[in-house]
Design goal:
It catalyses: Couples ATP hydrolysis with the unwinding of duplex DNA by translocating in the 3'-5' direction. Belongs to the helicase family. RecQ subfamily. Helix 13 packs antiparallel against helix 21, helix 18 packs across helix 19 and helix 19 packs across helix 20. The longest helix is centred in the last third of the chain and has 26 residues. With about 625 residues, this protein is of the alpha/beta class. The chain is elongated, with a radius of gyration of 30 Å. It has 25 helices and 21 strands.
């Protein structure tokens, strides 16, 4: 029987039907149309490329900057017996080589690639020989310099079109302004415009914004009133601990999370929150990508996000179960000022970028003319401290160095230890006989890890140590010795960001940096901050402000944000005041003092406002200092 999109969905995922827009996107992809899909966070973007690829011969190449998410998706596909593999920074050249061979000669259906891997001629050449059925570009806004999270490595995606001119592109993102929508399609070389999108309106989200002097007190009241689990976003690592401690001291089960924690600690904290053992997770924006927890009842921002795009994504982690949820943004005037100051810091001058490059090469002891292709674990905080550089300016300088292809920098990601036997079974057996001390360890590896002769497999040194009754240090030493004996290759775990030099070191005076581009980006970032200020200051409707920013033309207020609720309460109150005034004046004309005192609804200021409006519209008449309701 011929497979259909629905039968694939049911076979591998067990769902009876698609979510809104998924079927339309899959239909266009199967027709071979280049497609840009705009779907909100949690809308099910991954199925839009996974389902059509499974219906076609060949491999789907997925580009994503989120390494943790790539790893999760590969693991989830493998659980469904769908062969998938990921290649990202931190993997050895040999690991990459084996993985790419499996994509050409094996049965791999999905290859997940970090965009910076496309800097490699080796990767490009191997992709040329793959039978590719689809290119899926996740977080596609990263390719646009007008996107909120521009990644220079995304510009390498144009090479995919050169390698396979006839293969369909599916670009996916949750947030894109009209300018970015156009830019994505142009940069990816769409044959014709084709955009499918859901409304940016989230009907179940009640957006709230408060200018609040006591942000901690208001946050606590919100959490206690809302019930359920939630996320509190803060700007830096120190704040995550301080706010979590404050919540714990006030009886709220809370924990903190940031990218500087050991991966094992991050995973435990995330799991405790996912399983509702921790009620509130206080985090930097490193938390949340790829986490599909449906019952988040609130997302609180204690600092103003850098852009409305970032805010929309982070706030959108609330209420994925379609039940009522509340994104709450708390701010002070000082937060607004700091946001503008950060824009200034994010665009260092040419001299600072030169200096940063010079220090970076010295940091890794790279000689002039050397360094091309070299990869290092890199801690930008440690680097900035050593050379007494401002952290935000250093991070920005690195991004501009990456944009002009001097280097490539990946996010921090946990990569477990890996092992692969480099000899055949017969030769390994001879080694076991001649080196009895290694026999138990080799048997344990063979029992626990399948495919260890064919490719690198993730291993757990602690588990192996338990199984053979040795210490972890002894097991690691034995693995290293087996590598020396050329029986296998052992790669230790890492969770550091990876920095790669793409060109030989030059004298910093000869460094080329595209300063006009930097000035254009700065002007764009200033516009983004102004858009956030508009969102904070609007008097209409929060949802409408977001929808208009993303180019959605509608004037229907949401009815559930703080402004709509306040307006509804005010309108209801004013309506009651009007009714009371009518009843009182129909009985007898009154002086101003008597009339206002007779009213039972609203504050005196509101009563006077309503009376003034009634006078202006001639619903109430004033004669000889007496107010009356005319009877026609």
């Amino acid at each position: 029987m011929e497979q259909t999109s629905l039968s694939v969905l049911k076979q591998y995922w067990g769902y009876e039907k698609f979510r809104p827009l998924q079927e339309e996107i899959i239909h266009d992809v199967l027709l071979g149309k280049d497609t840009l899909a705009l779907m909100p966070t949690g809308g099910g973007k991954s199925l839009c490329f996974q389902v059509p690829s499974l219906l076609k011969d060949g491999i789907c190449i997925v580009i994503s900057p989120l390494i943790a998410l790539m790893k999760d998706q590969v693991e989830n596909l493998r659980k469904r017996d769908i062969p998938a593999i990921a290649i990202f920074s931190g993997m050895s050249k040999r690991e990459v080589d084996i993985a790419l061979d499996n994509c050409i000669f094996g049965n791999i259906k999905f290859l997940y690639l970090a965009p910076e891997r496309l800097y490699s001629d080796l990767v490009q050449e191997r992709i040329r020989h793959m039978k590719v059925n689809l290119f899926a570009i996740d977080e596609a806004h990263c390719i646009s310099q007008w996107g909120y999270d521009f990644r220079p490595s995304y510009l390498e995606l144009t090479k995919l079109r050169e390698l396979h001119p006839d293969v369909t592109f599916l670009a996916l993102t949750a947030t894109a302004t009209p300018r970015v929508v156009s830019d994505i399609q142009e940069k990816l070389g769409f044959k014709e415009e084709n955009v499918l999108k859901k409304s940016f309106r989230r009907e179940n989200l009640g957006y709230m914004v408060f200018n609040e002097e006591n942000k901690m007190g208001r946050m606590l009241r919100v959490i206690k009133k809302m019930g359920g689990t939630g996320i509190v976003y803060v700007r830096n690592r120190r704040e995550t601990q301080e706010v979590a401690r404050y919540l714990l001291n006030h009886g709220v089960p809370a924990d903190f999370y940031h990218a500087g924690l050991e991966m094992s600690s991050r995973m435990k904290k995330q799991e405790a929150w996912t399983k509702n053992k921790t009620r509130v997770i206080v985090a930097t924006n490193a938390f949340g990508m790829g986490i599909d927890k449906p019952d988040v009842r609130f997302v609180i921002h204690l600092d103003i996000p850098d852009s409305l795009e970032a805010y929309y994504q982070e706030a959108g982690r609330a209420g994925r179960d379609e039940k009522k949820a509340y994104p709450v943004l708390l701010y002070q005037q000082s937060d607004r000022d700091e946001l503008w100051e950060n824009v200034e810091l994010s665009f260092p001058d040419f001299t600072f970028i030169q200096q940063c490059y010079h220090y970076l090469c010295n940091y890794f002891q790279i000689a002039l003319g050397a360094g091309q292709g070299m990869v290092f674990d890199f801690d930008v905080v440690e680097f900035s401290k050593k050379y007494k550089l401002e952290l935000l300016k250093s991070i920005s300088a690195l991004k501009f160095l990456e944009r002009d292809k001097w280097l490539s920098l990946s996010d921090a990601v946990y990569i477990p230890a890996r092992f692969k036997f480099e000899v055949g079974f017969q030769e390994l057996y001879k080694f076991q006989v001649s080196s009895v001390a290694y026999d138990n360890l080799i048997k344990a590896i063979l029992r626990v890890y399948g495919g260890v002769f064919d490719y690198f497999v993730p291993i757990n040194e602690f588990e192996l140590a338990k199984k053979i009754g040795k210490s972890v240090d002894e097991v690691i030493h034995m693995l290293k010795m087996m590598q020396q004996y050329e029986m296998g290759t052992y790669l230790a775990k890492t969770d550091k960001p990876q920095l790669q030099f793409l060109q030989p070191r030059v004298d910093y005076k000869n460094l080329y940096i595209d300063m006009p581009f930097i000035q254009a980006r700065k002007a764009f970032k200033q516009e983004q901050v102004k858009a956030i200020y508009h969102y904070l200051d609007t008097k209409e409707c929060r949802s409408l402000a977001l929808q208009h920013y993303f180019g959605e033309q509608t004037n229907e207020a949401c009815g559930v944000c703080d402004l709509c609720v306040t307006r509804a309460f005010r309108d209801n109150e004013r309506s009651k005041i009007t009714q009371e005034i009518q009843q009182i004046l129909l009985a007898n004309p009154r002086t101003l003092h008597d009339l206002i005192d007779c009213l039972s609804v609203g504050k005196e200021e509101t009563r006077l406002e309503v009376l003034r409006e009634l006078l202006d519209s001639e619903q109430v008449l004033l004669k000889d200092n007496l107010y009356s309701w005319p009877v026609f």
